[in-house]
Design brief:
18 strands, 17 helices, elongated, alpha/beta, NAD, 509 residues, EC 4.2.1.136, eleven-stranded mixed beta sheet, UDP-N-acetylmuramoyl-L-alanine:D-glutamate ligase, disordered C terminus, single chain, Rossmann fold, YjeF_N_dom_sf, 40% helix, seven-stranded parallel beta sheet
Amino acid sequence: MKILSAKQIKQADKLTIEKQGISSTELMERAATLVFDEIHKRLQGAPIPVKIFCGIGNNGGDGLVVGRQLIEAGYDVTIYIVNYSDQRSPDFLVNYDRVKNLSKNWPVLLKAEDELPEIKYGDFVVDAIFGVGLNRPLPNWVAGLVKHINASGAFVLAIDMPSGLMADAAVADMESIIKASYTISFQVPKMAFYLPGTAPFVGDLQILDIGLDPEFLKDAPAAAELIGKAEARALYTPRQRFTHKGTYGHALIIGGSYGKIGSVCLSATAALRAGAGLVTIYAPKCGYDILQTALPEAMVITDPHKEILTNIDFDLDPDVIAFGIGVGTKEETIEAFEQLLKKYEKPMVIDADGLNILSKNGNLLELLPEGSILTPHPKELERLIGSWKDDFEKLEKARAFTKKYKVVLLIKGTYTFTVTPKDLFINTTGNPGMATAGSGDVLTGVLAALVGQGYESLRATILGVYLHGKAGDIAAERFSYEGVVAGDIAKNTGAAIFDLFETEKTNIS
């Protein structure tokens, strides 16, 4: 699903009105009626006080339509007009008159912070102050209203956007954003819904199809692409009947050190579960017995050193190398990594201490094979690209990094981002149970398996992140968020592939 900018959404509204021969007021009625339907489904006529805060633009117009329909359905509704300007949108005025003609209790005008109404725990608040068009800081007294709503403990439903949040720009005052319990947005998701700094304000999210022009939506260039099951399924290449293990690539997992052999075991397991035809592990000598016992499907080569990697030498031609998990950052290991980079030319998957080595030794970045995949969590990313003032600057810096070094950058998080110089993809699978030791090692193995099977690096990253998250979701269904361990994620990678085609899930204990 595409993520579009605020400007593009306005263009879609305008084109829809022209092509469908409707008025902007009719389009507003259509959208707001769908919001009313969702609220009515949840409240079911319950005698809960509903307090609707409407701005004086089109988002406020949506709120007025919802308020009018809730009044008609018999709810206890109070509408407040947040009068932050003398200017009103035409559609706001139309719906303001409709509400006045319907109700004996006209909307209450709010003009200053000392007029803020009482909001109680148990109230149902509808936020319709500002929508996708917001492009400036809130007036001081409106910011005070936002803080008043947030402090109330009421359930807050935001229409289109939590007020104070901008669709595709940073917000200076994060305390002046509505912290919604639930957000109902229109037609397409917005970038701010998925960024670490702003996503928590959205709460649970629902996107309603309000019938905007499908041709425009199809042709509009995306600011980002949201990856769900349909998008992931389109990336998957099914196996052919007449193939063999050599068809599906040889992945070499290089990593581990004394006390951290489990990391390469997890990664290799994931690579096998994600379809790698052959997996070899290169580890210190201390890992040999452990790996041969724990994972008989994998081959093992050992470094001359017992506890760390010092001389990465192998007599094979792997289709992909994954490096960094559990290796540490000893000088001998850094030197061995440098020699590996100088002689290996195929795309690599680099994680964990591999990233730390790169950030401390910037000259090694120039040696990265083109198309390599780097998988940092936020702190590792900061060490690679430098600090940022907000998530939008972070993404710009990440794009510049991928362009300079010709790599794919995977930024881990609640919503994992895949970044290239031109494209941005946001993953939708995964859950809090995956915040567990070894989860990233599993992802490294999945990515290595896909690259080894011939998936181009970007395609492998998008699909691999989706499958990794889905495997975690399947594991959490069985073991709970708290009960998931990284091995469960690795073992359920195959079940995640099954799920692409809506086959009955197979959980493996």
